[in-house]
Specification:
The chain is of the alpha/beta class. 46% of the residues lie in helices and 14% in strands. The chain contains 15 helices and eleven strands. An eight-stranded parallel β-barrel has the order 1-2-3-4-5-6-8-9, surrounded by eight helices. Helix 9 links the parallel strand 8 and strand 9. The structure holds flavin mononucleotide.
Length: 329
């Protein structure tokens, strides 16, 4: 399946820099792709956190590398203005020659139809069997399996359980969560994953434009310093336990909690929390010292230095070559 992933994405190394709000500035996406991995654009990061016109942002990446990169689409429905932007971003991505789409949430069927008609491959984020079956039925080419060690919004299952629950679907499975060094990378490939998607590791890089104290916080942290909060998106997100996180508490207040559990108000509450968190994170990246609300996953313990993104990809490539010279995998 590694070979299928490499064919699908047209990259050399089965390493993805996952879309991150607010970590995926275009320079980071380009650096990962240039080194032979797959950088993935997060449109809200591109246009809102870093204020690029979307097409110009894609063109900036294309100036920095002529290698393939992907674009992530979060398929949130119900907000007409967002849906319009989503369609615009997709059409621009097609026009600018993107070859890989990564979808999150929702039903990716309409994206698959539009993408396949243009020779674009689609992988979809999943956290369990139910979502994976829905995505497979929609015709996606691969599954990005988000586990419970991931940074950002976490999954529910371990990488091992997720793999065993999904491998019979016959699609390439990408492991997203908890991998930040070569040992974990090789372990996940040995388990059967076709590739690894990393977020936290790529935050602590020279090209990532989050503030330096956030990067240092990742380098300093151990797995035990990662805690879960539902205050960022209404679902579980993992963050570093900083004084600011402790001060604000990890869980929403009981009234919000009640509204988050009700079918009729759950969606609205999640949207409100998400919008607030998008604004907060923009300030975190644009105003150094604003607040230590630092999302990161449990792979922090494997990160010991801020490095160039390309050096990480190169190291993983060398480790894979030394581990499995057999190209048939
Ligand atoms: C700060 C941060 C923000 C993230 N934002 C997004 C996002 O906007 N959309 C998305 O699909 N995934 C997002 N993710 C998840 C990553 O794309 C990736 O799947 C995850 O980081 C992998 O786990 P790891 O952090 O343990 O490497 C985010 C992760 C982090 C750490």
């Amino acid at each position: 399946m590694i070979q299928q992933f490499l064919r699908d994405t047209k990259v050399d190394v089965p390493v993805v820099c996952g879309p991150m709000y607010p970590g995926s500035n275009p320079e980071l996406v380009a650096a990962v792709s240039e080194a032979g991995g797959l950088g993935v654009v997060q449109p809200v990061t591109m246009t809102y956190a870093y204020q690029h016109d979307f097409r110009e942002g894609l063109r900036l990446i294309k100036q920095l590398t002529n290698k393939p990169f992907g674009v992530n689409f979060t398929l949130l429905a119900g907000n007409k203005r967002y849906e319009k932007r989503l369609h615009e971003w997709m059409e621009i991505s097609i026009e600018e020659g993107t070859s890989f789409f990564l979808t999150s949430l929702g039903n990716p069927k309409w994206v698959v139809e539009r993408a396949h008609a243009n020779g674009i491959v689609v992988y979809h984020d999943v956290t369990n069997r139910k979502f994976a079956e829905k995505a497979a039925k929609a015709g996606v080419d691969g599954l990005n399996c988000v586990n419970h060690r991931a940074g950002g919004q976490t999954g529910e299952l371990s990488a091992e359980d997720l793999y065993h629950s999904l491998h019979d679907l016959g699609l390439p499975l990408v492991c997203a969560g908890g991998v930040s060094d070569e040992n974990e990378f090789l372990k996940m490939l040995d388990l059967g994953y076709a590739a690894v998607q990393m977020g936290t590791r790529f935050l602590a890089t020279e090209e990532c434009q989050i503030p330096d104290d956030y990067k240092q916080g990742i380098v300093r942290s151990e797995e035990k310093d990662i805690v879960w909060t539902n205050k960022l998106a209404g679902t579980t997100s993992s963050v570093i336990r900083t004084p600011d996180i402790e001060k604000g508490g990890l869980m929403v207040n009981p009234i919000f909690g009640f509204l988050l559990r009700q079918r009729s108000t759950k969606k609205l509450m999640r949207t409100l929390l998400l919008l607030r968190s998008i604004r907060t994170h923009k300030k975190v990246v644009q105003k150094p010292g604003y607040g230590q609300i630092w999302q990161a996953g449990k792979g922090v313990g494997q990160i010991h230095a801020i490095e160039p993104a390309g050096a990480i990809v190169n190291r993983f490539q060398r480790a894979l070559e030394a581990h499995k010279p057999d190209e048939s995998r």
